[in-house]
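Retro notes (design track)

What went well: tokenization of the new backbones is finally stable.
What didn't: we kept losing track of which sequence belonged to which structure.
Fix going forward: every design gets posted as structure first, then sequence, in one message. First example under the new rule, 363 residues:
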């Protein structure tokens, strides 16, 4: 069903666009009249992710700066946003956070101009009560609604930040589930897969140590896919362990086959705002093992589809590996089906409908 036309148009803004953002944009555009939804990013490249922007040639897309995202260009980005908002009669804006100067300039300007703002957020951390309350008052004053990742984020915004006069909905952190379900199945190998940047917060040093100490029976393999500053350290740790494999980042189109070849997915992060790789793995029908420090853990992991553990306690990771090795092939398939059913509630269509609900409801 197509939603009613807004009194003006919609502009979505993220740091840097990739396939994940394009999936949300396309889902929203499919629900609204043609020519009413536009999209921008702060820069056409960044120093962390080497995404290709699938919307680069779309007439609805326009970058707000030619500089990489990590380079300062706040005033120019703000001016570009204003010009685009005026030119395209923007009355509703979806803004990806408040951690950058340009976003705060945009939020205040939208408030002054009567442009409705839906803020996107995965934040659930921060325990300074006075600072949180001040932040909450500020965000309540410049935002009309909040589209957050999950229950941790909703609790943070409603309880810690004290935002009680603005609607807050879950459903921000989604991927194209159908894309990640399209891989060629090859689960003959007993492979535990971890897709993560090789950096401290992903806790891969402890993961490797725990896997080595678990001494799993049979032909179980741990495969780490990513890349980053800890690459050499991790490979040195695993030297001599034939059952620990490494791969650099794979392209978006290669990921479905990667997940399809695994038997279980694990993410041991000590800090993780959400964890979209978990969405990807679940869409591919994998059971999951997550640290309780992952933002998505209470939303996506249960006894029906996986195991939880404390990222800071090596013994709990060791025991999780042993639990995985004790699951039968039939049980893993059953858990994988549960993953697919659960993640179906977190889709681009979920995101689009939540955004529309926030954008069109009246105060």
């Amino acid at each position: 069903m197509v939603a009613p036309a807004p009194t003006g148009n919609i502009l979505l803004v993220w740091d840097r666009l990739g396939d994940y953002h394009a999936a949300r944009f396309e889902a929203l555009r499919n629900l609204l009249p043609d020519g009413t939804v536009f999209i921008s990013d702060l820069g056409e490249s960044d120093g962390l992710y080497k995404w290709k922007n699938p919307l680069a040639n779309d007439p609805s897309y326009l970058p707000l700066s030619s500089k990489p995202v990590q380079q300062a260009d706040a005033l120019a980005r703000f001016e570009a946003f204003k010009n685009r908002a005026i030119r395209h009669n923007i009355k509703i804006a979806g803004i990806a956070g408040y951690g950058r100067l340009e976003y705060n300039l945009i939020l205040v300007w939208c408030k002054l101009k009567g442009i409705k703002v839906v803020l996107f957020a995965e934040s659930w951390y921060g325990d300074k009560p006075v600072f949180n309350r001040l932040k909450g008052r500020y965000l309540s004053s410049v935002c009309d609604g909040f589209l957050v990742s999950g229950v941790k984020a909703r609790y943070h915004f409603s309880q810690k930040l004290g935002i009680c006069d603005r609607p807050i909905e879950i459903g921000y952190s989604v991927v194209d589930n159908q894309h990640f379900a399209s891989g060629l199945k090859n689960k003959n190998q007993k492979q535990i897969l971890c897709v993560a940047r090789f950096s401290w917060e992903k806790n891969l040093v402890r993961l490797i140590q725990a896997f080595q100490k678990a001494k799993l029976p049979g032909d179980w393999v741990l495969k780490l896919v990513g890349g980053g500053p800890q690459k050499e350290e991790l490979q040195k740790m695993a030297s001599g362990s034939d059952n620990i494999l490494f791969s650099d980042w794979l392209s978006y189109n290669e990921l479905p086959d990667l997940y399809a070849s695994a038997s279980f997915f694990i993410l041991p992060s000590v800090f993780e705002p959400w964890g979209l790789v978990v969405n990807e793995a679940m869409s591919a029908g994998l059971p999951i093992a997550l640290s309780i420090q992952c933002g998505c853990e209470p939303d996506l992991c249960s006894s029906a589809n996986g195991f939880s553990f404390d990222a800071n306690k090596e013994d709990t990771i060791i025991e999780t590996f042993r639990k995985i090795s004790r699951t039968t092939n039939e049980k893993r398939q059953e858990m994988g089906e549960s993953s697919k059913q659960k993640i179906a509630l977190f889709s681009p269509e979920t995101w689009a409908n939540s955004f529309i609900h926030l954008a069109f409801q009246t105060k």
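Added context from the reviewer: The CA atoms of residues 164 and 313 lie 36 Å apart.
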